[in-house]
Write a structure and sequence with these properties.
The protein is of the alpha/beta class and 273 residues long. The chain is built from nine helices and 13 strands. The longest helix is centred in the first third of the chain and has 27 residues. The mean pLDDT is 89.
Length: 273
């Protein structure tokens, strides 16, 4: 009823009711986008007051990609919640594509993912750079490897939708139309590692994913030749984001938990998504 009343006041249809599911009209899309901006600006009023009082409180909705969540979150969550008891942190895992849409729709306040996204509506703040390591069940003759040293038919990959999969395919120049003898799409990095341990083969792991490996597992790691490939991990927001103070506090705590050397790897080879 409220939507119909607004349509009458504006003299235009916001939603096309002949379609199922309901979709906005062309004019409606513009109005919905503007309404989101108005709501964001209205929400910023209480944030401004809280900042002036030196108070950090409220809900922070954070997205994170699955290849980062199990390794990055334990490094800072406990200290962040202890330091800011009045912040309610709501975290969910999403693929990069889904997270970008949720940031633009206002369903998320911030996200932690791999960049660059090359999306004009997304603001990226690089945090650190994760070096890639080869995890292999067999030895190589060379101490430092090149991507072309890896046999695509021995390489375990994540399933479609993960940016890490597309990065490895770009790094190793594996094209979607390539004919591989065996294709198995795993859902997590831990699955990839266990496939190497139990079925042999090779996979590639980012730096944070190797921190909990036993000394025996560490022996299966191989280094890439310098400049080593890395992925750029960023804190991302909508271009017109709010909750700036809360997001800055989150960024500072993440950076405090990350080893210094990972913050300065930008000179290495950043792999495209």
């Amino acid at each position: 009823m409220m939507v119909q009343k607004l349509e009458e006041e504006l003299g235009t249809k916001i939603f096309d009711r002949s379609k199922k599911p309901l979709i906005p009209t062309e004019t409606g899309k513009l109005l919905v986008e503007q309404a989101r901006k108005v709501l964001q600006e209205a929400s910023a009023l209480s944030e401004i007051v809280a900042q002036q009082k030196g108070i950090l409180e409220g809900k922070l909705r954070l997205g994170i990609i699955p290849t980062l969540a199990p390794y990055l979150l334990p490094l800072f969550i406990k200290s962040f919640l202890k330091k800011y008891p009045k912040i309610h942190l709501k975290i969910a895992e999403y693929t990069t594509e889904v997270m970008a849409e949720k940031l633009k729709s206002g369903e998320l306040d911030a996200g932690i993912l791999v960049t660059p996204l090359k999306d004009a509506k997304i603001k990226e703040t690089p945090l650190f750079y994760e070096t890639f390591f080869v995890y292999s069940s067999h030895d190589f003759e060379k101490e430092y490897l090149l991507p072309e040293d890896l046999n695509p038919n021995e390489l375990w990959l994540l399933e479609e939708g993960h940016c890490f999969r597309s990065q490895i395919m770009n790094l190793c120049e594996i094209h979607k139309q390539s004919t591989l003898q065996l294709e198995y799409a795993a859902g997590s990095l831990e699955t990839l590692r266990q496939l190497v341990d139990n079925q042999q083969g090779v996979t590639i792991l980012p730096e944070l994913a190797i921190q909990y490996l036993s000394p025996q597992k560490q022996n299966k790691l191989k280094y890439f030749q310098s400049p080593a490939p890395v992925r750029e991990v960023s804190l991302v927001t909508h271009r017109d984001f709010i909750k700036r103070a809360l997001i800055k506090a989150l960024k500072d705590d993440i950076l405090a938990a990350i080893p210094e050397k990972m913050k300065g790897n930008k000179q290495n080879q950043i792999v495209n998504i």
